[in-house]
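Both lines are given unchanged directly below:

***
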Amino acid sequence: MAQGHARASDLALCLNLDFLPVEPPRQPVARVLRALPRCGEMVACLSIIVGGLGLIGLASVL
């Protein structure tokens, strides 16, 4: 986060801008960050289910 602010400050100086970069609101970002672990768990569950279905299908063909 600090590197992004430093880069934005450098760009503002190069472009002769006289305002500071504004931070994005933290609440929407926090919601996304809280949802990421849940998404990882859902992907793991779905991969186990789909893998199991594939193995059952393979076993039924044999």
User: Anything to note?
Assistant: Residues 25-62 form one domain. The chain has a mean pLDDT of 78. The longest helix spans residues 26-61. The radius of gyration is 23 Å.
